[in-house]
Amino acid sequence: MRKKSWPTHSILVLAIVATWIKTYIVYHTSFDMKIENMMQQVILLINPLSFILFIYGISLFFKNPKIKNRYIVTISFILSAVLYANAVFYRFFTDFITLPVLFQTSNFGDLGTSAVESIYWSDIFYFTDVAIIIIALKWLKIGEITSVIKPAVRRAYFVLTAAILFLNLGLSEIERPQLLTRSFDREMLVKNIGSYNYHLYDLYIQSKSHAQRALADGSELVEVNNYVRSNQAEPNAEMFGLAKGRNLIVISMESLQNFVINNDMNGHEVTPFLNSLTQDKDTFYFSNFYHQTGLGKTSDSEFLVENSLYPLGGGAVFFTHSGNKFHSMSESLNEQGYYTNVMHPNNKSFWNRDMMYQALSIQKYYDVNSYEVNEGDAVNWGMKDIPFFEQSVSLMKEMPQPFYSRLITLTNHYPFDLDEEDQLIPPYDSNSRTLNKYFQSVRYMDEALKTLFDDLKEQGLYDNSIIVMYGDHYGISENHNKAMSQYLGKEITPYESAKLQRVPFFVHIPNSGKGEEITETAGQIDIRPTILHLLGVETAKDMQLGADVFSDEHEEFVIFRDGGFVTDKLVFANNACYDNETGEQIEIESCQPFIDRASQELGYSDQIINGDLLRFYDLKTGNLLLDQAEQKKP
Ligand code: GP9
Ligand code: MN
């Protein structure tokens, strides 16, 4: 072949095309990514391109053809190796590599000798593009001569690269709004921004939290610790240990807001089962209880329950700080001999749960692979709540006791789609399809909860358990205020919006004869101390910001992640102060002391998380390990 017949930079074009096509083939052959529509397919096709163009494009700056070609071969090899590493990792963990995983050697403990067994000769395919490039260079002698590229052409090349990146990001934003601020799921990230960009994104998130951690000086703990100790609430003697030794079943009720409880929709009761619990002799029902989640939604509520700390203001703490040291409720219960687990029939990497649960010392995650999702068992986001509960109870039956199982429901999730046979009441009749369907899907979840209680009784697990249930976060956003105001028969002011953040909270202790409606203002941050005290576990040394709701010292002060708050007398929302009784706006001075305390408390929580301060805290003695902190300083 004569050199002249190949246009200049054809090796660059060849490399781009080869790596692009190979990556796309690998997406389809090596990963099990659910592609639901044409748009997702298009995104998947274009998403490797921006990074490939960029990284190979750097070769345009090299004048020496030898160096340039060597650079292209090296890059193709590195990209292939990264993709191949992901493919092998995926064979084991059905997940994509994230940086912390590379440093958590325990993950590789599982690999053992079988690692070698799952590397095949055919894996050579992952390096096809490298081979093509080398063949082209060596035998076809493409790219031996390179003419100098005009700066204008080079500029046009990188403008095109940027344009493709923005097109990619734009399409992803349409497909999955807020993907980059909230992360959601590794699979979703790879599906949308591509495997190479995903690693850059991961690098950015991890290095940001790493830097904050490195800068943290353990001495910050002194102030935080003083604050925590002075806000400690003594357990209520009558309630402490009431459920000692029992199994703990915690249910996260997806998107369930309090306004549906003891309410009807065009004459249809929305939550007949939960309503019956509000009157039950063994159930405490908290009617002024608030969610405190941020962008991490369900995962933020899990974070609150496990740690009694606030989630972060930006991004999902499950993604950003899964490498931290935590003293979770699971860890405390492990020490009490509990078998701790989470049950949730979704992809395990969603909300980075597979990683975060290790940090939270949760012994087992029953993800979608622990369930048999038969024909007709799935709707909307995945497995329906009723079969999910049925199979979960069967799994519980096999667990060593006492166990702590946290079950996360899924059906009542936006967009609240249901199969016809599960629609137990008609839709509502507002201008919001979302709200209209919401009532139906809440009604279905209520039915599922009833079946859960029945299943537990049938399997003989009920009497020796305590069942705690909470709504994880709002389901109806402020975009549906018009429809909500039609339903509630009043205008939705910022005050009303704040009050709509109430989620139901139930503590059900079978055969205890203890139960009533409690109107005390409280929030998700209080769940952990409340539960641990009921189980007879002391929390006096815990680094937690919530308080036992049964304690006389529990303060009626709930802080929202955005700095807003509710007390028994005041509501602070949208920078305005309201009388909690009347809903009337009042002068800001009344709220000011609480505004300051809210920002102080959120600040302390953020310090603990960003500085990974619990690594300097000895839970057993309550001592601050400041000497070690000194040593760790660079
Ligand atoms: C996903 C489920 C829903 O596994 O927990 O998450 P959400 O979108 O409600 O945060
Ligand atoms: Mn949720």
TrEMBL record:
The chain crosses the membrane at residues 12-30, 42-62, 71-93, 119-140, 152-171. It holds the Pfam family Sulfatase. InterPro entries: Alkaline_phosphatase_core_sf, LtaS-like, OpgB/LTA_synthase_biosynth, Sulfatase_N. It comes from the Bacteria. Keywords: Cell membrane, Manganese, Membrane, Metal-binding, Transmembrane, Transmembrane helix. Coiled coil: none annotated. GO terms for molecular function: metal ion binding. The keyword DNA damage does not apply. GO terms for cellular component: plasma membrane. It is found in: Cell membrane. Substrate binds at residue 413. Mn(2+) binds at residues 254, 298, 472-473. It is a multi-pass membrane protein. Residues 246-537 form the Sulfatase N-terminal domain. The active site is at residue 298. PANTHER family: LIPOTEICHOIC ACID SYNTHASE, LIPOTEICHOIC ACID SYNTHASE-LIKE YQGS. Belongs to the LTA synthase family. This is LTA synthase family protein. It comes from Psychrobacillus soli. The lineage of its organism: Bacteria, Bacillati, Bacillota, Bacilli, Bacillales.
